[in-house]
């Protein structure tokens, strides 16, 4: 695929023009959306830490995601050898880490990062993989309001 190929797709945010060289392949899909294998990351707003992981084939399937390290430095993930092979990497530090973001309807103060199901992206190979974490020291959700309190107190 040439780098200049583009496609207009419908998204949860309206029509967007997508550079096809930036489409990510998810060989396992994403939990709850296993039938969708091609996604693209869309910027919501300039300078926003939040992105939309949008399915290429269904405008209704878009997950808000963020780099967890924009909010906390105390987060480690475990990646098994089989997952590294699927991602085509030798070292887990070779991938970008994203987590889904939940904003409850009518309660934006309860916005949370889902730390139990990080999404790893190998941008060079354009492969994404959700890697559920088990036996972790982290809570399944990290509430942004709790982080704000910690920063004020710290």
From TrEMBL:
Give the residue spans that cross the bilayer.
none
The answer on whether this UniProt entry bears the keyword Coiled coil reads no
By sequence similarity, the record places it as follows: Belongs to the FliW family.
One Gene Ontology term, aspect cellular component: cytoplasm
Q: What is the role of this chain?
A: Acts as an anti-CsrA protein, binds CsrA and prevents it from repressing translation of its target genes, one of which is flagellin. Binds to flagellin and participates in the assembly of the flagellum.
Cite the source lineage.
Bacteria, Pseudomonadati, Thermodesulfobacteriota, Desulfovibrionia, Desulfovibrionales
Primary location class: cytoplasm
Subunit-structure text: Interacts with translational regulator CsrA and flagellin(s).
Protein name per the record: Flagellar assembly factor FliW
What keywords appear on the UniProt entry?
Bacterial flagellum biogenesis, Cell projection, Chaperone, Cilium, Cytoplasm, Flagellum, Translation regulation
Highest rank taxon of the organism: Bacteria
GO annotation terms (biological process): bacterial-type flagellum assembly; regulation of translation
Q: Where in the cell is it found?
A: Cytoplasm
Question: Mind telling me which Pfam families this protein's record contains?
Answer: FliW
């Amino acid at each position: 695929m040439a780098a200049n190929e583009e496609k207009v797709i419908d998204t949860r945010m309206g029509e967007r023009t997508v550079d096809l060289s930036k489409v990510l392949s998810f060989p396992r899909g994403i939990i709850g959306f296993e039938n969708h294998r091609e996604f693209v990351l869309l910027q919501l707003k300039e300078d926003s830490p939040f992105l939309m992981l949008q399915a290429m084939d269904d405008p209704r399937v878009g997950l808000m995601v963020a780099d967890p390290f924009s909010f906390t430095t105390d987060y480690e993930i475990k990646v098994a050898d089989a997952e590294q092979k699927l991602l085509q990497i030798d070292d887990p530090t070779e991938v970008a880490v994203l987590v889904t973001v939940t904003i409850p309807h009518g309660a934006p103060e309860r916005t949370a990062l889902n730390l139990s199901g990080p999404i790893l992206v190998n941008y060079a190979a354009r492969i994404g993989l959700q890697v559920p974490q088990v036996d972790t020291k982290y809570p399944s959700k990290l509430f942004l309001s709790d982080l704000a309190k910690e920063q004020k107190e710290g």
